[in-house]
Amino acid sequence: MNFIISIKSPKLVQRFSFCLVVTRKFCDPSFDGDEGNKGSECIDQPVYTNWAKTRFYSVLLEKSDLYAREKRGPGKFPARRYFLETTRIEGERVLEVLKQYLPGSGFDLDLALDELQITVSHRLMKEVLFGILKNVNYATRKRCSSLAQKFFSWSAAAACKEEGVKRGYVHSTNSYHLMLKIFSECEEVGKVKRLVDEMIEKEVEVTAQTFNILIRTCGECGETRQQLEKFVKSKTFIYKPYHNPYNAILHCLVVAKQDKLIEWVYAQMLNEGISPDILTYNVVLWARYRLGKLEMFNRLACEMIDNGCSPDFHTYNIFLHVAGKAGNLKGALNFLERMRRDGFGPNLLHFTTLIDGLSRAGDLDACEIFFGMMKKEGCMPDVVCYTVMITGYVVASKLDKAQEMFDEMISKGQLPNVFTYNAMIRGFCMAEKFKEARTMLKDMEYRGCNPNAHVYSTIVSYLRNAGKISEADEVLREMNEKGKYRYLDPKFEQNRRFRYVRL
User: Fold this and answer.
1) CA–CA separation, 115 vs 61, rounded Å?
2) CA–CA distance, 27 with 436 (Å, rounded to integer)
3) DSSP secondary structure string, 407-457?
4) Is the dihedral of CA 66, 72, 73, 74 positive or negative?
5) pLDDT of residue 60 exceeding 60
């Protein structure tokens, strides 16, 4: 569960609201939001003239002669298109060479890469490292980590040889981020730390994304605190759009749910004499709530007001969730009224946040009151709000109410998502209405909403617990026939567990 932090840019508000909304956590933050790769094509502009020297130029020209005649006039040449295509082919050839390497086999990897006579560029690094990253799994992680490191080292050395000077190709922040992701996926914590240290030592620009990868890999430990200090003191730490590096770090920590480290960073910030702003307060308030430090939460809220820092859109979102979770209806109403006085008209997000908190507290009557209030104020519920209500009814074993809400959702043009369907399927299974549950599964697929492993596991587990082993096996067969998931755990009967992976 997350919340939205305060930033002024509308574009950034949209970006962060995806990750930091105080609602029921319907999806996990992924590791794949790769900001660092944006703009990498611009870096490759100086090497457009180099690719034409390779023997791939003539091959691509022959293959694309028809395109060239149709799309360009005399004397014109689509250089960018051919450059990207050449780089893609070179990347594939590098990956083929890397596949041939086995430790102790006598295969000289550096010599084989040299013989390719390729031009090292940032685009080539992206192609090769992405190719390695896509192949990382439990069985291949050690090999992928080793190959990525060898290619990373070779490319820097090869660029120096090619250019003849040390000012040739050098690894960019994007390349380092891809290496960090590979090491992180391979669970190479030591290599992640050493690579970050190398970035700081070589004065490569480090960003909040660099720190985010580090903290997700290393977790909460004493060594991570040392890395925190390095980031704050680093001259190349780019922490925009935040007005100080501590806020950039706090944002990464709240996404990674490192609440104890948030407290530590906040203390360091105060020791440095840096005054917290509303973004800082939002992050620390949310961390203290998640740590269960409600007394400290209240003190910090009062401190924020005393320091002249007025609550913003996102601060009220936190207050409403806390009030809802505590079942404090009077407090919730007071917050809504104060928002109106301060010019923050409560919107769909605030009502959904409040309803979610009340639902978790088991107060469905209050949920219905605020759901109706929301509609009267012109805030039409979306799929998230409907799913929160449906989930609350299912947990309270009010399947009829959940069905009514589901039907209303459809009639209002809101398409259910996988979490809505999973809540309904779980409700039917809890009531042992397995026929309806399987009908709902078919309806889900008919509407183009692909069921995930959790949906299947819900049906299978309830069927098995009800002693309907043959029906559970039939669901598993249907799942395997569709080719979406593969059954992995052979000891299902003993431990009643099952795991699936996407094929």
Assistant:
1) 23
2) 26
3) HHHHHTTPPP-HHHHHHHHHHHHHTT-HHHHHHHHHHHHHTT----HHHHH
4) negative
5) no
Per-domain boundaries in the chain: 35-161, 399-503
Q: Tell me, what's the pLDDT at 168?
A: 63
- How high is the pLDDT of residue 386? 95
Question: Which residue bears the tokens 């004397």?
Answer: 75
User: What is the separation of C-alpha 368 from the centre of its chain, rounded to a whole number of angstroms?
Assistant: 32
Neighbours of 7 (CB within 10 A): 20
Tell me what pLDDT residue 233 has.
Answer: 78
Q: Which helix (H) or strand (E) holds 486?
A: strand 485-487
Measured distance CA(177)–CA(208) in Å, rounded = 11
Whose tokens are 């104890």? That residue is 260
In the three-class reduction of DSSP (H, G, I as helix; E, B as strand; rest coil), residue 38 is classed as: coil
pLDDT of 247 over the 80 cut: yes
Give the pLDDT confidence score for residue 162 in this predicted structure. Answer: 57
Q: State how far the Cα of 220 lies from the Cα of 245, in Å rounded to an integer.
A: 19
Q: What is the C-alpha separation between 321 and 3, in angstroms, rounded?
A: 10
SS (H, E, C) 42-107: HHCHHHHHHHCCCCHHHHHHHHCHHHHHHHCCCCCCCHHHHHHHHHHHHHHHHHHHHHHCCCCCCC
pTM: 0.65
Which helix (H) or strand (E) segment is 297 a member of?
Answer: helix 294-306
Q: Residue 32: its pLDDT value, please?
A: 38
pLDDT tens column, 260-269: 889 888 998 8
Structure tokens at 66: 């028809």
Total residues found in the chain within this entry: 503
The predicted structure's pLDDT at residue 53: 40
Name the class of domain 399-503.
mainly alpha
Token digits of residue 55: 């023997």
Q: Sorting pLDDT into bands at 50, 70 and 90, what band is 43?
A: very low
Q: Where are the alpha helices (DSSP H) in 241-291?
A: 245-255, 259-271, 278-290
* pLDDT at res. 61: 40
Q: How far apart are CA 387 and CA 24, in angstroms?
A: 9
